[in-house]
Amino acid sequence: MNYDVVVSGAGPAGSRCAEILARNGFNVALIERDINWRKPCGGGLSTRVMSKYYPQIRKLNPVSKKGAFMFSADFHKIEYNWEDYGEDSVVMDRLELDNLMRDIAVEAGAELFDKNTSFDFIIKNQKKIGVKTKTKSGIKEYLGKIIVIADGMSSKLAVRSGLRERWKIENIGLAKCSIIEGKTDFDETKSYIYFRPYKGYGWVFPIDNNQINIGCGTFEEDNLNYNLNEIYDDFINNPNIK
Ligand SMILES: Cc1cc2nc3c(=O)[nH]c(=O)nc-3n(C[C@H](O)[C@H](O)[C@H](O)COP(=O)(O)OP(=O)(O)OC[C@H]3O[C@@H](n4cnc5c(N)ncnc54)[C@H](O)[C@@H]3O)c2cc1C
Q1: 240: part of which helix (H) or strand (E)?
Q2: pLDDT tens digits along 86-132
Q3: Do both 229 and 178 map to the same domain?
């Protein structure tokens, strides 16, 4: 399969890149490992960005956030309102957001290839001329004059290209989160951010009055000093977080 551009990774960067190229007449292959995977993410989006690049999100009627509560590790609280600054933000289900961006890229003319995991380049005369992917039915090859690596921090291609090495665990952040359904006392117009007694933080981002995105994580050396599953269980069961 021959393309002008092969984009590996249909997250926000890859989908937007594919959309713009396709709109400008380029023949684009957009390769994605799994369109059903929900990336761990708070899903917070500024309405300025949303209105400029993805006005289609408005149709989903997301709830505007007018401010945030921030908590120290011993749960002292400050409130920060940004309403007066003329700015606000929304919280989206990240899977819904990613798939909306992918759909817009496809509508613009990009071809989306799901369940394709990029793992290496096709090389001819010492030039990278395409991308090899693993699929259930075997290895597939996508030829492209330009290759865009947008497949995130676990990218195999970024490492194979020599652009960077594999990240070491103490140089990254680790996080675990869920979307929980049901009524809570969290104000849907606010975000809740919790500093923790380790290098890391937790959050509760209400999506609406029936769903919250709740999660926490560590970074740098505390990735090694703390067990993510244990701190997540401790966080979501903490009586101060309600
Ligand atoms: C815990 C957490 C919370 C966050 N909260 C927010 C927030 O509230 N607001 C905000 O703006 N940002 C937030 N971010 C940051 C945001 O998630 C990233 O900036 C954004 O996802 C980067 O987009 P991307 O397209 O570069 O990469 P990604 O979103 O990582 O997309 C990469 C894509 O490539 C695919 N892929 C991976 N490997 C392969 C492969 N080998 N072959 C094919 N496809 C592959 C993946 O499935 C994915 O679809 C958060 C990040 C984390 C980790």
Answers
A1: none
A2: 778 999 999 999 999 999 999 999 999 999 999 999 999 999 999 99
A3: yes
As a whole number of angstroms, the distance between CA 224 and CA 175 comes to 13
- What is the three-class DSSP state of 241? coil
Q: Is 8 in the pocket of ligand 1 (CB under 6 A)?
A: yes
Structure token digits, residue 176? 């675990």
Domain boundaries, position 75: 44-91+169-236
Report which of 215, 206, 214, 212 is spatially closest to residue 188, judged by C-alpha positions. Answer: 206
The answer, yes or no, to whether any atom of ligand 1 lies below 6 A from the CB of 9, is: yes
Q: Are 121 and 157 in contact (CB under 8 A)?
A: yes
CA of 207 to the centre of ligand 1 (A): 19
- Out of 151, 174, 176, mutate this one to test ligand 1's pocket (max ligand atoms within 8 Å of CB): namely 151
Q: Is 177 exposed, middle or buried (0-12, 13-18, 19+ CB in 10 A)?
A: buried
Total domain count, the chain:
2
Structure tokens at 229: 């599953």
Does some domain include residue 241?
A: no
Pocket flag, ligand 1, residue 167 (CB < 6 Å): no
How many other CB atoms are found less than 10 A from the CB of residue 231?
21
48 and 85 in a common domain:
yes
110 domain-assigned: yes
Q: Are residues 123 and 100 in the same domain?
A: yes
**Contact in structure between 160 and 180 (CB atoms under 8 Å):** no
Q: Does any domain span residue 114? A: yes
Report ipTM for this prediction: 0.98
